[in-house]
UniProtKB/TrEMBL annotation:
Source species taxonomy: Eukaryota, Viridiplantae, Streptophyta, Embryophyta, Tracheophyta
Organism: Ficus carica (Common fig)
Name of the protein: Defensin-like protein
GO cellular component: extracellular region
Protein location: Secreted
Family: Belongs to the DEFL family.
Primary location class: secreted
Amino acid sequence: MGGCDPQCQTGCAGKHPSGQSCDATIKTCKCLPPPPPPPPKGKTCHVGIGPCSAKCYDDCCNEKCAERFAGYLQGHGSCENPIGPARFNVCMCYFQC
């Protein structure tokens, strides 16, 4: 798009009205789309991310979920038993979706 000059904002406004940017460190005009909005709050989704074990149980599962569904997703998790004996415990993650 060229250098950082008055043309940057004008040129970018036609492509992405709220996403224009001028990178002053490399003196380059960048036209980036605005980031997508976060999902609506209030709905919680869940997904199993693998088996639990003696090595990785509730605390470990919770850390993995928090990492995988970070930020506005507010991920957290625990080991649960959806189908029977304890050997089938699954790390279930809960997050905003």
